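call fold target=DNA-binding transcriptional regulator, AcrR family
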Amino acid sequence: MTATKGELRRASLLDAAEHVLVTLGNANATMRNIAAESDVRLGHLQHYFPTRSALMQAVLERVLERFLASMQETTGVAIGVGTEGPITREESGRIFGSMMQQQQEPATVRLYVEIWAMAASDTETAAVLRDFYVQYSHYVEHIVKRAQPEMTANVCRARANAIVTLFEGAAIVGAGFAGLRSAETDIELLNVVQGLMHEPE
């Protein structure tokens, strides 16, 4: 389906917001700078995104959509909430291997880091970020439940949260903020995640 002019403009504004965050950092990710990067007036940007927190929410929603679409494309496993059927150990290995691969992209990790920095001093952005992680964890929870249909909801949720925590920590370590990540570390991380996915309660 062909995107409308408004959808294309919205996507262009989100591209600009991501670019400013990654290249100039949180401190310079003002609405004015993002409008300048898009070559539009501030009022035009505010027509689509009235506040910076609304803009960051849209950025994070698009990051999550892109993340999930890429996982589904690279693994061939339908992973959206509402999909059914068991997930094998081999399939979960492909899913989480894809997640690890995506988190090795410096621009992606830098984007997260800058949004985390923004959330530390902006309660609205912090709320948006919390909602992002709730959604992210919900998708992982659905994958865990498909791997372990008999698992109780509380354990399934706890394991999903643990998996998200492990991957977010690995992203920071792998982004050059600490020199601890290696191919061997990634293998061990995947083994731990596979255990959380497939070992009974």
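return ok
Residues 123-147 form the longest helix (25 residues). The radius of gyration is 18 Å.
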